[in-house]
Specification:
109 residues, 2 domains, 3 helices, transmembrane, Phos_transporter, transport
């Protein structure tokens, strides 16, 4: 229990550093960072939704959990599938709605 107070911030710092390094390497250090930035936007939105939904379905309120007697795997599988589907839906919406709007707004400036 006490170890999680140390391990959780350490792991989040490592993951945050890795994400920042990837963004700097593949987006910010490019000659035209707008194109890879817009290309990666649906990915970031989709992954964020996946992580949030899976944490809600796994550790959220009891009424959001999907339980069957003697089938503990079902909760994990169903929670993962819901989060992946919703993440993909959000990524597709961002790709077809937000990215063109942002591209148009950036080009008009």
């Amino acid at each position: 229990q006490v170890g999680s107070w140390f391990l959780s911030p350490l792991l989040s710092g490592i993951v945050s550093g890795a994400i920042f390094w990837l963004i700097r390497r593949f987006i910010l250090n490019k000659s035209d960072p707008i194109t890879p930035g817009l290309r990666s936007l649906p990915i970031f939105y989709g992954l964020t939704v996946i992580v949030n939904i899976i944490s809600i379905t796994m550790d959220g309120p009891e009424w959001l959990r999907f339980r069957l007697e003697d089938h503990a795997w079902f909760e994990t599988f169903f929670g993962a599938m819901i989060s992946i589907v919703l993440g993909l839906v959000v990524a597709i919406l961002i790709f077809f709605v937000m990215v063109p709007r942002l591209r148009k707004e950036i080009e008009s400036e």
